[in-house]
């Protein structure tokens, strides 16, 4: 009997040509077919047929970044994302997860991400932690090494300072202007750790003559839950967002986060089996646009020179899921003074991949170390990113190379803001 | 069962020698299952996968395998379309994909020396830096390893003008079935010292020896190229045009054909503006000196128009050329939109028989009620009839098996061959006698037995088992 919970029929679309192999970061760093897209599809098929156990399937699936570069490389349009998603969901039910995995997931998924009040508290916690001598004490005493998994400890030192805000930021409705109306999607991590980027994004949109609304009751996009196989929560969050963004009539739903945007454009896929939501989800997904797409089409004026030599690290989910490749490069080209240098391995995942770099810290660092020489040899003093996860990972990469004083990491929005605001 | 136990002993003894790092000896089920297949049909899980990165390691493994009678299956990146690396009798898969440390270009000798796991496309890239070229260009060249290309004697679109893999091999380092390390050929174009074992090993599909290093010939890189797209209302006319071009003294570097079914599939999938009422489309690339190809392009245009071409377009820029080639690239994704299983054949006929082959293919398609599109390297007679089916449909797959057999028969009847570039492997083994005759095949078997008396090197390939038939269905 075939396990129908796995995307078994989809595995037949793979003709096993192997064209995905060079595109797969884990095949490059783990050096075996088991950790390639073709290998994983074969194993999912075998697991569905009962020829291997779920435990046999677990490691190869856990080690997948979910960067989806294989989908772009695939000549026959295999829906790898669906196959991976089904495997994650089944493995979540059928196999035992390590203590570490459960600890990180419950901390993030169940408590933090979906609840804005919890995020506010977390933000306050982060804020007070960073402003008090506690951070210093914790770092010195190594107390974090005991409490937190290695990955979290490593990243603790590069997490940006949360801004001091006494209350939850209120995004004022602007006076109706412009012909284009957009609803802005904040994203929970972005709203916590990188909220100035959201502020700048909204300012840029308004400067470009776009009417921006920050819809109330919007929620976490559900991407991390979906990557972890918790599709139930992901679907609930999707519905919450669809409802929230139906509160007005908008031309676009705009986000500045590659990963969240990828989740939003796949709400239609996520809710395809729920008749009451299918159409609403399709409408929602169709309206999503990354901020770079809106700004690239606008007649924003670039006032200030930004004197940097920059490389661009595209977010995998922006490239391979949102299929937004040209707009960020068009914007980069418009910034006066900015010397953009294309780098080798540009499309290779940095190894961040949601919470992959925390759960699979060593594997993630292998990928980062495989990527960084290409960054370094392009001799930049700025790395431009489009996703907070990549942002932190690239900062980590710079730190590991011992180049924190030479190379800055900035979100594309920050670079545009430097020139335009 | 016996083989199973022997494979276990092989691993134990290999581990005891501590020659190969434990991380390159793969024994878990998920790892072994990941080397059970290639890009064709069939699924057999080996007892162990070993990833050698040195000749001495291969020698040691093969020595043990020969002593214990354990089958050894060399594998590159598993892009074979004929079952070349599938471990049909279990045993050891030698995964060469991780052995890519040597890629050296010697510009003064115009040669490259490579490890077996080097990606084919990387050789040409490295040669490019010295204004040279490694011409063989199988469509999987960005994935496939040179070791696999050598074993299968891979070809590609450039075959028409530049030949195939064997035309670029000057020398090899091989490990024989008893574990000896020997060198064949050398570094020079001229070399008549004894039997040409190099050419015998190339294309022997890993059944005679294991290739551990190759010395390859490079050629000067053409300074320019030009791409043309030609439309024909009548398929027969396209065949006549091809002959006319070649008789004119022009050898295009690529000469590809797409039939009406492939054009229709591409247009339905991603409209590129091609007319769907033409019977054939030719993509022609000529290369050479910029001034020479200007003139040749006009000659090609003349040949086509004189022979009934509806339209000849010459690309004005590299971008336009790549737009032309896009149509050809889209054939594969386009044809699997309807059904997922693709059976890609490479039966090859003498150039003049192409129109006749097309006619017969149409008959086979109708008689068996199968989905068949034809494209391929028209210039050298190497067509790719592709059958589109669904492996889950047992009844349909039986019809497909019958049709494949008929395609082979037709090719041989027209004076052609079973395989132009994909190799025999498991897929075409049942048809070998049809082409070679019983005595011809027996001669090959004698060669095999003298190289590999214990039949440990890639057993189950090329030579059919008694009563073996083509089976594309699972089970």
TrEMBL record, chain A:
SUPFAM superfamilies cross-referenced by the UniProt entry: alpha-helical ferredoxin
Keyword Iron-sulfur on entry: yes
Gene3D superfamilies, sorted: Alpha-helical ferredoxin
Cofactor(s) listed: [4Fe-4S] cluster
Organism superkingdom: Bacteria
UniProt KW keywords: 4Fe-4S, Electron transport, Iron, Iron-sulfur, Metal-binding, Repeat, Transport
Limits of the 4Fe-4S ferredoxin-type domain: 4-35, 54-78
Reaction catalysis annotation: (R)-lactate + A = pyruvate + AH2; glycolate + A = glyoxylate + AH2
Xref: PROSITE patterns: 4FE4S_FER_1 (PS00198), 4FE4S_FER_2 (PS51379)
Signal peptide annotation: none
InterPro entries recorded: 4Fe4S_Fe-S-bd, 4Fe4S_Fe_S_CS, Cys_rich_dom, Glc_ox_4Fe-4S, Helical_ferredxn
Function: Component of a complex that catalyzes the oxidation of glycolate to glyoxylate.
Protein known as: Glycolate oxidase iron-sulfur subunit
Species this chain originates from: Geomicrobium sediminis
UniProtKB/TrEMBL annotation, chain B:
Cofactor(s) demanded: FAD
UniProt EC number: 1.1.3.15
Protein name: Glycolate oxidase
Keyword Flavoprotein: yes
InterPro entries: FAD-bd_oxidored_4_C, FAD-bd_PCMH, FAD-bd_PCMH-like_sf, FAD-bd_PCMH_sub1, FAD-bd_PCMH_sub2, FAD-linked_Oxase-like_C, FAD-linked_OxidoTrans_Type4, Oxid_FAD_bind_N
Domain FAD-binding PCMH-type: 41-221
A UniProt-annotated Pfam family: FAD-oxidase_C
Molecular function per GO: (S)-2-hydroxy-acid oxidase activity
Keywords: FAD, Flavoprotein, Oxidoreductase
């Amino acid at each position: 009997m075939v396990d129908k919970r796995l995307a078994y029929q989809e595995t037949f679309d793979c003709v096993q040509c192997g064209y995905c192999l060079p595109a797969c970061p884990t095949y490059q760093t783990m050096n075996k077919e088991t950790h390639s897209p073709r290998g994983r599809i074969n194993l999912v098929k075998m697991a569905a047929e009962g020829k291997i156990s779920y435990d046999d399937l677990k490691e190869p699936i856990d080690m997948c970044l979910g960067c989806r570069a294989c989908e772009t490389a695939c000549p026959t349009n295999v829906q790898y994302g669906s196959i991976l998603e089904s495997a994650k969901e089944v493995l979540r039910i059928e196999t035992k997860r390590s203590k570490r995995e459960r600890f990180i997931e419950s901390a993030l998924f169940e408590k933090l991400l979906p609840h804005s009040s919890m995020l506010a508290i977390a933000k306050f916690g982060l804020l007070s932690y960073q402003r008090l001598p506690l951070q210093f004490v914790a770092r010195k005493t190594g107390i974090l090494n005991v409490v937190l998994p290695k990955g979290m400890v490593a990243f603790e030192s590069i997490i940006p300072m949360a801004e001091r805000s006494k209350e939850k930021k209120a995004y004022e409705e602007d006076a109706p202007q412009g012909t284009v109306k957009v609803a802005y999607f904040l994203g929970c991590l972005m709203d916590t750790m990188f909220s100035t980027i959201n502020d700048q994004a909204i300012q840029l949109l308004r400067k470009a003559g776009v009417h921006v609304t920050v819809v109330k009751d919007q929620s976490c996009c559900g991407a991390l839950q979906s990557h972890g196989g918790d599709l139930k929560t992901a679907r609930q969050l999707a519905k919450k967002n669809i409802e929230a963004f139906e509160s007005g009539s908008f031309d676009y739903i705009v986000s500045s986060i590659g990963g969240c945007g990828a989740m939003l454009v796949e709400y239609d896929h996520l809710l395809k089996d729920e008749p009451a939501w299918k159409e609403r989800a399709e409408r929602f997904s169709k309206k999503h646009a990354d901020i770079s797409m809106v700004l690239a089409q606008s007649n924003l004026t670039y006032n200030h020179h930004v004197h940097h030599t920059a490389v661009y690290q595209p977010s995998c989910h922006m490239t391979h899921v949102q299929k937004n490749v040209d707009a960020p490069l068009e914007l980069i080209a418009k910034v006066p003074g900015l010397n953009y240098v294309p780098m080798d391995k540009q499309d290779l995942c940095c190894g961040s991949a949601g919470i992959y770099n925390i759960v699979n810290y060593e594997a993630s660092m292998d990928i980062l170390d495989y990527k960084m020489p290409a960054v370094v040899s392009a001799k930049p003093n700025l790395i431009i990113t489009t996703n907070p996860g990549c942002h932190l990972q690239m900062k980590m990469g710079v730190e590991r190379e011992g180049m924190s004083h030479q190379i800055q990491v900035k979100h594309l929005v920050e670079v545009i803001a430097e020139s335009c605001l | 069962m016996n083989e199973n136990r022997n494979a276990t002993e092989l691993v134990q003894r290999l581990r005891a020698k501590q020659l190969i790092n434990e991380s390159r000896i793969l024994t878990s089920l998920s790892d072994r299952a990941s080397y059970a297949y290639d890009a064709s049909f069939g699924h057999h899980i080996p007892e162990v996968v070993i990833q050698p990165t040195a000749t001495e390691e291969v020698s040691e493994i093969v020595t043990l395998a020969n002593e214990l009678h354990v089958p050894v299956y060399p594998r590159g990146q598993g892009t074979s379309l004929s079952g070349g690396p599938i471990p049909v009798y279990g045993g050891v898969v030698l995964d060469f994909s991780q052995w890519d440390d040597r890629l050296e270009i010697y510009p003064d000798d115009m040669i490259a020396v490579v490890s077996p796991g080097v990606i084919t496309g990387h050789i040409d890239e490295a040669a490019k830096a010295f204004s040279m070229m490694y011409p063989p260009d199988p469509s999987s060249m960005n994935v496939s390893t040179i070791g696999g290309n050598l074993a299968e004697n891979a070809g590609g679109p450039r075959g028409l003008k530049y030949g195939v893999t064997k035309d670029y091999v000057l020398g090899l380092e091989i490990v024989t079935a008893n574990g000896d390390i020997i060198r064949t050929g050398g570094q020079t174009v001229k070399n008549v010292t004894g039997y040409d074992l190099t050419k015998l090993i190339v294309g022997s599909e890993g059944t005679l020896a294991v290739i551990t290093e190759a010395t390859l010939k490079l050629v000067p890189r053409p300074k320019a190229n030009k791409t043309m797209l030609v439309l024909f209302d009548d398929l027969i006319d396209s065949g006549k045009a091809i002959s006319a071009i070649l008789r004119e003294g022009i050898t295009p570097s690529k000469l590809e054909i797409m039939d009406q079914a492939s054009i229709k599939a591409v247009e339905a999938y991603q409209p590129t503006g091609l007319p769907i009422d033409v019977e054939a489309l030719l993509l022609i690339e000529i290369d050479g000196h910029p001034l020479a190809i200007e003139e040749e392009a006009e000659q090609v245009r003349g040949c086509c128009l004189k022979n009934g071409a509806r339209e000849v377009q010459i690309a004005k820029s590299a971008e336009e050329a790549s737009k032309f080639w896009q149509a050809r690239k889209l054939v594969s994704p386009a044809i699997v939109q309807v059904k997922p299983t693709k059976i890609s054949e490479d039966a090859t006929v003498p150039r003049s028989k192409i129109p006749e082959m097309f006619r017969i293919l149409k008959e086979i398609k109708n008689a068996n009620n199968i989905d068949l599109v034809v494209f391929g390297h028209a210039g050298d007679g190497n067509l790719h009839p592709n059958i589109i089916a669904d492996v889950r449909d047992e009844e349909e797959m039986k019809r497909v098996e019958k049709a494949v057999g008929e395609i082979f028969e037709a090719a041989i009847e027209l004076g052609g061959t079973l395989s132009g570039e994909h190799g025999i492997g498991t897929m075409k083994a049942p048809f070998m006698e049809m082409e070679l005759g019983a005595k011809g095949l027996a001669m090959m078997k004698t060669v095999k037995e003298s190289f590999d008396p214990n039949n440990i090197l890639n057993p189950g390939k090329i030579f059919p088992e008694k009563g073996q038939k083509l089976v594309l269905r699972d089970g």
